[in-house]
């Protein structure tokens, strides 16, 4: 079994597993500047809300290191500007905004204490490392909470990739398989391929095979069949943002699979670090949805599969209404409806 690490902080540089080349090539992209991190997020070298958040933390360290000067007021103006720029790399994942804001707040606190810039830079690096370590523990806690909802021998359907490749360690939705392995339980997986970027095929199938999990890959349009055949005991997916009412944004196609799961009385569990819960966003209607390049739909592995001239509509995410969600599983506990009330209680813990 190979050790596949999504991101590393080494000697002042951020190393990111290039997920655009998986499953055939395992190589790392080196980010030495904030611009490098911006491009890595935008081009999906790194993807998955938690991994984007951790990468943003380190990106803000690189931004601090790039400032040329000694004036702390000028530094803060520069730092806030760099943060807003990094936030624009992808609009849907709230972890990106959260991590940038946390780093800016830490910089404000350190400069407010009268710390020299060298001490500020060291403090910001320590903050980014803390974000990284917190994400690792969050992964394990979510996996433990998800496992409490399953029994030995169950089979889980998942969509897109919310595993170790999307986070710092075990992942969110896929953490349940790794925690099951630790406890000697046998939890099997079915993975949708997840068009148009095929994250389920290229990433989820790749990492589950690497970790020795029993996984079956299916075409996206087979989900209804396997659910109707009684092969699936639970649908578990990750998320990029949870609104205050429980509406959840995740990779395009999640909404469809959640509707199918409800049709066949299969529970739908959202694996959600509390950093993805946005209590300032009232409902899913207010979640910004990224629209990506038409080339993602028109090509597979560089080859056109449709006429070049045809129009496309390529939303990267959709929103699953709260009514289709059985529970939202976080590192702090499991949240059941009514979501608005119970999420508010959870976020105050």
From TrEMBL:
EC number(s): the record gives 5.3.1.23
Write down the top EC class of this protein: isomerase
Q: Where are the transmembrane segments?
A: none
Q: Which UniProt keywords apply?
A: Amino-acid biosynthesis, Isomerase, Methionine biosynthesis
Instruction: Note the NCBIfam families from the entry.
Output: eIF-2B_rel (TIGR00524), PRK05720.1 (NF004326), salvage_mtnA (TIGR00512)
* Site residues by UniProt (Transition state stabilizer): 160
Residues involved in substrate binding: 47-49, 90, 199, 250-251
Reaction equations catalysed: 5-(methylsulfanyl)-alpha-D-ribose 1-phosphate = 5-(methylsulfanyl)-D-ribulose 1-phosphate
Which family is it part of? Belongs to the EIF-2B alpha/beta/delta subunits family. MtnA subfamily.
Pathway listed for it? Amino-acid biosynthesis; L-methionine biosynthesis via salvage pathway; L-methionine from S-methyl-5-thio-alpha-D-ribose 1-phosphate: step 1/6
What is the recorded name of this protein?
Methylthioribose-1-phosphate isomerase
Q: Name one GO biological process term.
A: L-methionine salvage from methylthioadenosine
**PANTHER family of this UniProt entry?**
METHYLTHIORIBOSE-1-PHOSPHATE ISOMERASE
UniProt GO MF annotations: S-methyl-5-thioribose-1-phosphate isomerase activity
Q: Write out the catalytic residues in the record.
A: 240
């Amino acid at each position: 079994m190979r050790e596949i690490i999504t991101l590393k902080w080494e000697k002042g540089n951020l190393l990111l597993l290039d997920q655009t080349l998986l499953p055939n090539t395992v190589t790392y992209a080196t980010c030495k500047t904030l611009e490098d991190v911006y491009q890595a997020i935008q081009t999906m070298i790194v993807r998955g809300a938690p991994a984007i958040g951790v990468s943003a933390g380190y990106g803000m360290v690189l931004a601090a290191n790039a400032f040329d000067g000694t004036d702390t007021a000028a530094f803060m103006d520069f730092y806030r500007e760099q943060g807003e720029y990094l936030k624009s790399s992808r609009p849907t994942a709230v972890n990106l905004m959260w991590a940038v804001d946390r780093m800016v707040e830490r910089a404000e606190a350190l400069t407010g204490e009268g710390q020299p810039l060298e001490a500020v830079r060291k403090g910001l690096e320590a903050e980014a490392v803390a974000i990284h370590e917190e994400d690792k523990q969050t992964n394990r806690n979510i996996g433990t909470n998800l496992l409490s909802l399953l029994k030995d021998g169950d089979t889980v359907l998942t969509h897109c990739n919310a595993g170790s490749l999307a986070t710092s360690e075990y992942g969110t939705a896929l953490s349940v398989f790794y925690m099951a392995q630790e406890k000697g339980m046998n939890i099997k997986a079915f993975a949708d391929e997840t068009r148009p970027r095929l994250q389920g095929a290229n990433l989820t199938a790749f990492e589950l095979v690497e970790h020795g999990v029993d996984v079956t890959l299916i075409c996206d349009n087979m989900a209804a069949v396997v659910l109707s055949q009684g092969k699936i005991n639970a649908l578990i997916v990750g998320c990029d943002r949870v609104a205050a009412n429980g509406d959840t944004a995740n990779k395009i196609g999640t909404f469809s699979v959640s509707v199918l799961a409800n049709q066949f009385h299969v529970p739908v569990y959202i694996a959600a670090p509390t950093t993805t819960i946005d209590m300032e966003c009232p409902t899913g209607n207010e979640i910004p949805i990224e629209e990506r390049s038409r080339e993602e739909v028109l090509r597979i592995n560089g080859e056109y599969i449709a006429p070049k001239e045809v129009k496309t509509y390529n939303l990267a995410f959709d929103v699953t209404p709260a009514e289709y969600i059985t529970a939202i599983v976080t590192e702090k506990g499991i949240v059941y409806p009514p979501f608005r009330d119970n999420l508010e209680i959870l976020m105050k813990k």
